[in-house]
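Before we proceed, please read the two lines closing this message. Tell me what the token row says about the fold.
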Amino acid sequence: METLDILLSVATGLGLAAAAGFRIFVPLLAAGLAFHFGLLEPAAGFDWLGQPVTLVALGVATVLEIGGYYIPGVDHVLDVVAAPLALAAGVLVAASVMAELPAWFRWLAAIVAGGGATATAYSLTSLTRAKSAAATGGLANPVVSTGELAGSAALALVALLAPVLALVALITLAVLLVRRRRRAVA
């Protein structure tokens, strides 16, 4: 049973990390709420993520991030600064839920696999946003932003409720990214 718990916590972490590639604060808020309401046990040292003051801060940050992507110009600035923040958020949220792993391995898995999951999702959204902006002069960016928000929320929810499905979604994202990159090169 312990092996299954480990695999599920890693799958949850990878799903949440991938969700950070779409929106930085949505998966952190989702994990914090899960910790706060006792739906998920945080890894050692991550209790703070479920504290009310943290949840309020993450809620405000989430609303500001979502709103910013609907303001022309601000969405571009967010795109520029989002990559390193998304990676940091992906690693952090992945580490926060991998409670069953020894600390050294949790951080290794969070950095390598969680960072990779975040980068995969972020790359896909960046390519989609760039193509959309080029094709529509940025007029379709609110539609893309809505899709990214929905993707982040759905993936975070699936990661928390059905971690194995989150892994399937992550593999699907990776396949889509490879296909898009191949089309871009061709």
Residues 7 and 117 are 16 Å apart (CA to CA).
